[in-house]
Specification:
With about 110 residues, this protein is α+β, with helices and mostly antiparallel strands. Helices cover about 65% and strands about 20% of the residues. The protein has a 3-stranded antiparallel beta sheet with strand order 1-3-2.
């Protein structure tokens, strides 16, 4: 698969993946970026603009937590709108991936 196609696929599911991670618990951006890098090989620089956009869209809120190893960390948590968006996107992903699977592998 070409790098351009891989990049497009990753960008297409990035917000859904962040919402999924935050649905399991609050996290700071570096932690989210590390989990995405491990799971889908997404670069750290991609996460910060996405988190700012998701905050301005009302999907996440932030709060600071003191750190013993440096400045306070900004944690992200899902808002009610973020939870609703995650549920809707998850449903859309399930239907889309099922349709793609049927095209690739045939009906089950």
């Amino acid at each position: 698969m070409s790098e351009a196609i891989q990049a497009q696929l990753k960008r297409g599911v990035l917000e859904l993946c962040v919402l999924a991670l935050l649905s399991r618990g609050d996290a700071y951006a570096y932690e989210i970026a590390s989990r995405l890098a491990k799971g889908i090989d997404m670069g750290e620089g991609t996460i910060y603009p996405l988190m700012r956009r998701m905050q301005s869209d009302g999907l996440v809120d932030t709060y600071l937590v003191e750190s013993s190893s440096g400045p306070p960390r900004k944690y992200y948590k899902l808002t009610t709108s973020g939870q609703a968006s995650f549920a809707a996107q998850k449903d859309e992903w399930t239907a889309f991936s099922k349709a793609v699977d049927e095209i690739l592998w045939g009906p089950k």
